[in-house]
Amino acid sequence: MNLRIGQGVDAHQLVAGRPLILGGVAIPFDYGLAAHSDGDVLLHAITDALLGAAGAGDIGQHFPDTDPTYAGADSRGLLRQVVREVLDPTWSVVNIDATLIAQRPKLMEYLPAMQAHLAEDLGVTPGRINLKATTLEWMGFTGRGEGIAAMAAVMLESNADS
């Protein structure tokens, strides 16, 4: 059995005038995340973790913020592209464990919808995806409400005969 682990981290600043998209879910909030794409820190961290586990670089190498093609890009589309072009048919997702870090808005009620999106996009059962949301108790940039961060760990299994 050939297993590989990857980790990913992402953070973006909260700004007025943008929608807040996390895990592919539109969250009602007065601020959104500043980014070249839709700024979905959860999907960016998971995409980075998948790429790392596959030994395929990082999200910035595949979708550079200097390329106008990705301006306003849907992060679910970027994730699905990584699954198609990097993971399939070589790797299968064993599991994902990811944490959103935000003082506000409260995110717990949106986690099941995020989990469902991820399961659909990755072609796995929802039970392979564990999502959490936490605060930093008013400390740091997330605690001051200046931004949102996410961390993800992924385990992949090789589909090749070994």
From TrEMBL:
Site residues (Transition state stabilizer), renumbered to this chain: H36, T135
Highest rank taxon of the organism: Bacteria
Pathway: Isoprenoid biosynthesis; isopentenyl diphosphate biosynthesis via DXP pathway; isopentenyl diphosphate from 1-deoxy-D-xylulose 5-phosphate: step 4/6
Span of domain 2-C-methyl-D-erythritol 2,4-cyclodiphosphate synthase: 3-156
Residue numbers binding a divalent metal cation: D10, H12, H44
Any Gene Ontology biological process: isopentenyl diphosphate biosynthetic process, methylerythritol 4-phosphate pathway
Cofactor binding description: Binds 1 divalent metal cation per subunit.
Ranges that cross the membrane: none
Keyword line: Isoprene biosynthesis, Lyase, Metal-binding
Known EC number: 4.6.1.12
Residues annotated for 4-CDP-2-C-methyl-D-erythritol 2-phosphate binding in this entry: 10-12, 36-37, 58-60, 63-67, 134-137, 141, 144
GO molecular function: 2-C-methyl-D-erythritol 2,4-cyclodiphosphate synthase activity; metal ion binding
Keyword S-adenosyl-L-methionine on entry: no
Keyword Metal-binding recorded: yes
Cofactor(s), by name: a divalent metal cation
Pfam families: YgbB (PF02542)
Catalytic activity: 4-CDP-2-C-methyl-D-erythritol 2-phosphate = 2-C-methyl-D-erythritol 2,4-cyclic diphosphate + CMP
Function: Involved in the biosynthesis of isopentenyl diphosphate (IPP) and dimethylallyl diphosphate (DMAPP), two major building blocks of isoprenoid compounds. Catalyzes the conversion of 4-diphosphocytidyl-2-C-methyl-D-erythritol 2-phosphate (CDP-ME2P) to 2-C-methyl-D-erythritol 2,4-cyclodiphosphate (ME-CPP) with a corresponding release of cytidine 5-monophosphate (CMP).
Family recorded in the similarity comment: Belongs to the IspF family.
Subunit comment: Homotrimer.
Protein name, per record: 2-C-methyl-D-erythritol 2,4-cyclodiphosphate synthase
Organism: Spiribacter salinus M19-40
